[in-house]
Amino acid sequence: MGVGYKLFARPALALQDSERAHKRSLRMLRWMAATAPGRLMLRSLYAPRRTVPVNLFGHEYKHPFGLAAGMDKNAEALRGWDAIGLAFIEIGGVTMLGQEGNPKPRMFRADASKALVNRMGFNNQGSEAIQRHLEAHVRRYGRPKAPLWVNLGKSKVTSLEDAHTDYATTMERLWKHTDVFVINVSSPNTPHLRTLQNDEGLQRILDACHEVNQRLSASTTKDEIPLLVKIAPDVADEQLELIVRTAQANGAAGMVVSNTTLARPEPRSSKEKHLFEEQGGLSGQPLKNRSTELIRQVRSLAGPDWPIVGVGGVANADDAWEKIRAGASLVQAYSAFVFEGPALVKSVVHGLDKRRRSAGFETLQQAVGMDDVPAEDC
Ligand SMILES: Cc1cc2nc3c(=O)[nH]c(=O)nc-3n(C[C@H](O)[C@H](O)[C@H](O)COP(=O)(O)O)c2cc1C
């Protein structure tokens, strides 16, 4: 079916506008996962048969590979992501208020470079509607099997000064159903959002989110929910150090590295040249090395015990292994699902298990950050 996807579905989807193709794929996944035979089919075609357990953020993840933010902003296909065997599902970015996002077209696909450029601008239904949707989903089908992560964004109309209220309100609304929150201060498509990566902005957001966490945890039996900070790859070394220090000093449980980049690779054709001139963030294969490099830098600044989630250009087991060796405990992908389809999950997980065994490791955790160690000590 991986081959089936490449031969039939991908070319058909490639003929369509990127955003329309994305919507159609999401709808198809949701539709297939709506019945027991459909879910069985998805599971038997795509779900990994092996587990590569990772204990992190208060959960046992069945393997380290999850869905990156942006793919399912409104949590529309939760049963589908479960059925294809992802270890965790990050929904969102969710903002306090529902919003349309930027005018279309706003998502572009560079097939030769296996890259996407997008300037979606946090189009989503808003945290109130998504809260209602999650509550209805859980009542009807129970919680997703995989831990549910929520990516928190800022509504466009909310000023930077009030950003902390926007993040904290969404967090409060979705708290009950969430296993990990990711504070996204790194999308390039909301004006000035990235300035919130600076110490004062980030500190205020983390403080406001901690207040919600403590208050809700004290009034229920649920523990506080880990808060991660997602960063941009376009940061200078001094800025990175400040972000890591601020995040650690203000109780962030780890970091997601990284969001899309404003940088552009060498185009492979004149079509790509035009496409790379589009405004927005670039993801996929050309982001891979920069994001891995940033994982190394964050690990060396933060120390080996502060978890990193690696994302950017993961399209196969080698890419995921590279990020784990650089210091990522979990990895995620978005763009490669567009180019490779759902067979990606099995190929990444089985490949990682093979690499773990060839390296002689009992657990994947032993491989995390192994590039730090001189070769003769491995
Ligand atoms: C169309 C699109 C929308 C995205 N939306 C979000 C978002 O809402 N929040 C976020 O933190 N990242 C968002 N991302 C970034 C991805 O989560 C990921 O960090 C980035 O694409 C790099 O991973 P990849 O190379 O596997 O795509 C989006 C990416 C794309 C392509």
Helix and strand element order: HHHEEEHEEEHEHEHEHEHEHEHEHH
CATH superfamily grouping: Aldolase class I
Helical fraction: 40-55%
Question: Mean pLDDT, rounded to whole units?
Answer: 95
Task: Catalogue the ligands.
Answer: flavin mononucleotide
Task: Using the 3D structure, state the CATH architecture.
Answer: Alpha-Beta Barrel
Task: Provide a descriptive summary of the structure in words.
With 378 residues, the chain is an alpha/beta fold. It has one domain: Aldolase class I (TIM Barrel, Alpha-Beta Barrel), CATH 3.20.20.70. It has 13 helices and 13 strands. The protein is globular and about 50 Å long. The mean pLDDT is 95. Flavin mononucleotide is lined by residues 68-70, 92-93, 107, 116, 118, 120, 122, 151, 153, 184, 187, 230, 259-260, 283-284, 287, 311-314, 333-336.
Q: Can I get a quick summary?
A:
It contains 13 helices and 13 strands. With 378 residues, the chain is an alpha/beta fold.
Provide the descriptors you would attach to this structure in a database record.
378 residues; alpha/beta; TIM Barrel; eight-stranded parallel sheet; three-stranded antiparallel sheet; 13 helices; 13 strands; 14% strand; globular; binds flavin mononucleotide
Summarize the topology.
Elements: H1 2-14, H2 18-32, H3 36-46, E1 54-56, E2 59-61, E3 65-67, H4 78-83, E4 89-94, E5 107-110, E6 115-118, H5 127-141, E7 148-152, H6 163-174, E8 180-184, H7 199-218, E9 227-231, H8 237-249, E10 254-257, H9 270-276, E11 281-284, H10 288-302, E12 308-311, H11 317-326, E13 330-333, H12 335-340, H13 344-358
Parallel strand pairs: 3-13, 4-7, 7-8, 8-9, 9-10, 10-12, 12-13
Antiparallel strand pairs: 1-2, 5-6, 6-11
Helix pairs in contact: 5-6, 6-7, 7-8, 8-10, 10-11, 11-13
Bound molecules: flavin mononucleotide.
Residues 68-70, 92-93, 107, 116, 118, 120, 122, 151, 153, 184, 187, 230, 259-260, 283-284, 287, 311-314, 333-336 line the site of flavin mononucleotide.
